[in-house]
């Protein structure tokens, strides 16, 4: 008996639970990023993620869903037949076993999370009014079309590209867009001269823990059912995340002689990013390799590449999400197998080349679209409203200058810790952008 197009209560329950888990990832990003900025910017950083959660959710319901998942128009965009969720109702998702509204809820959380990831690239230096307009336009004109190209039946899907849960649509797009915006915005005042180290590492660990938990819904929920595919995605997600942690910490330990907590949680997130596009297509052992390599290459992107080129990606959105997403998309083209997902394809290590080349092309498309689209939107928004804070506002901190609030009732020391012996030397090794111990 064909059970497709018949609503299954177990599948529906799992997708709704997964949607709730993905929802929690945006507040988790707020805490993850909030702990890594200086104390004078903690609230402004948290506010960016939380406001995006509200703004993009409304945008997605009104227009985003139909742009991404409406009927295909020439492989480029969905039509407006489902604007404002018109006609969605309680219909079963085409070819699935859940109500379409459950799918709407799940995808809405993805749409809200993605621009929140971008904020780490330009933390501590963007005016809130300009930020709101830029992120709204970015969601409409960059995220929605890309989601359609990959997941909505657009030309990349027709090409054969695979992205189980968002390596292309979410991580490459957000990471590369973040890099583009942070370069156009310019460096923070004092970058490379003053200490800009995390002010609350326990807060960052709490955020990373929330991301780790939420990611099970992110990846396993993308199976859109409580089934064997979801179980596979769940286990490979855990395997890659823990392997990514080991990879990052190992290289950091070798290079600097000290393993750090920030390194451990960053490596965990790098492994999660890397497995995201592959979670529904690869077996367990390859997932360990994907996570381990992901942790290493993301560490090198953060500790070596960023230092060499000197761009101010404040919280390493590009180094972790952009680079991790690219590696994950490539890894999908290497290790994907129809033994895991008959609806997928076999990768290069299983004797076929079509998927690998489709992945390379899709990465190129995502990178070019993110760079060009983000640059155009940046120029348009900057012609309408100021985007960059001035030096006095940055010195004061965005919490006060943009929101009139303080994160703490008493000042928090934000310089380099002095209880590690040669503290300035330690900071130079662990946080290579630091040139002085004074904030």
List the helices and strands and how they pair.
Layout: H1 9-36, H2 42-69, E1 72-73, E2 77-78, H3 100-118, H4 128-151, H5 155-159, H6 167-185, H7 201-220, H8 228-256, H9 261-275, H10 284-309, H11 317-335, H12 354-384, H13 391-396, H14 398-403, H15 423-430
Antiparallel strand pairs: 1-2
Helix pairs in contact: 1-2, 1-3, 1-7, 2-3, 2-4, 3-6, 4-6, 4-12, 6-11, 6-12, 7-8, 7-9, 8-9, 8-10, 9-10, 9-11, 10-11, 11-12
The strand count comes to 2
Order of helix and strand elements from N to C terminus: HHEEHHHHHHHHHHHHH
Strand content: under 5%
**Are there runs of 5+ residues with pLDDT below 50, and where?**
413-439
Sheet with most strands: strand arrangement: 1-2
Mean pLDDT: 93
Specify the helix fraction band: 55-70%
Can you describe this structure?
This protein is an all-alpha fold and 439 residues long. Helix content is 64%, strand content 1%. It has 15 helices and two strands. It has a two-stranded antiparallel sheet. A hairpin with a 3-residue loop joins strand 1 and strand 2. Helix 1 runs parallel beside helix 3, helix 2 crosses helix 3 and helix 6 runs antiparallel to helix 11. The termini are far apart.
Key phrases:
439 residues, mainly alpha, two-stranded antiparallel sheet, 15 helices, globular
């Amino acid at each position: 008996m064909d059970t497709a197009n018949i609503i299954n209560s177990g599948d529906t329950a799992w997708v709704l639970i997964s949607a709730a888990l993905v929802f929690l990832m945006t507040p988790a990003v707020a805490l993850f990023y909030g702990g890594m900025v200086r104390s004078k910017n903690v609230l402004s950083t948290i506010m960016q993620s939380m406001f995006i959660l509200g703004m993009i959710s409304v945008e997605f319901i009104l227009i985003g869903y139909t742009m991404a998942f409406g009927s295909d128009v020439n492989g480029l965009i969905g039509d407006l037949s489902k604007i404002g969720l018109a006609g969605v109702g309680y219909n079963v998702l085409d070819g699935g076993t859940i109500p379409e509204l459950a799918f709407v809820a799940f995808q809405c959380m993805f749409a809200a999370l993605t621009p929140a990831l971008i904020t780490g690239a330009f933390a501590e230096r963007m005016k809130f009014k300009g930020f709101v307009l830029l992120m709204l336009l970015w969601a409409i004109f960059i995220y929605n079309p890309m989601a359609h190209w990959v997941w909505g039946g657009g030309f990349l899907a027709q090409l054969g590209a695979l992205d189980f849960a968002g390596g292309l649509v979410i991580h490459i797009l957000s990471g590369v867009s973040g890099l583009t915006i942070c370069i156009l915005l310019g460096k923070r005042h004092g970058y490379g001269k003053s200490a800009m180290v995390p002010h609350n590492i326990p807060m960052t660990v709490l955020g990373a823990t929330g991301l780790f938990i939420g990611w099970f819904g992110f990846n396993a929920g993308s199976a859109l059912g409580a089934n064997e595919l979801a179980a596979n995605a769940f286990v490979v997600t855990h395997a890659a995340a823990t392997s990514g942690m080991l990879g990052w910490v190992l290289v950091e330990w070798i290079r600097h002689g000290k393993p750090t907590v920030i390194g451990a949680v960053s490596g965990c997130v790098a492994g999660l990013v890397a497995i995201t596009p592959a979670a529904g297509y690869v077996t367990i052992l390859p997932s360990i390799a994907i996570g381990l390599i992901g942790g290493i290459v993301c560490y090198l992107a953060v500790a070596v590449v960023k230092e060499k080129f000197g761009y101010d990606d404040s919280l390493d959105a590009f180094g972790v999400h952009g680079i991790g997403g690219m590696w994950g998309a490539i890894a999908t083209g290497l290790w994907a197998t129809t033994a895991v997902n008959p609806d997928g394809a076999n990768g290069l290590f299983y004797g076929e080349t079509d998927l690998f080349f489709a992945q390379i092309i899709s990465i190129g498309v995502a990178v070019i679209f993110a760079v060009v689209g983000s640059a155009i939107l940046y120029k348009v928004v900057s012609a309408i409203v100021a985007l960059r804070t001035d030096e006095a506002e940055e010195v004061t901190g965005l919490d006060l200058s943009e929101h009139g609030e303080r994160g703490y009732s008493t000042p928090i020391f934000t310089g380099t810790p002095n209880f590690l012996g040669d503290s300035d030397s330690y900071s130079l090794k662990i946080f290579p952008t630091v040139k002085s111990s004074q904030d």
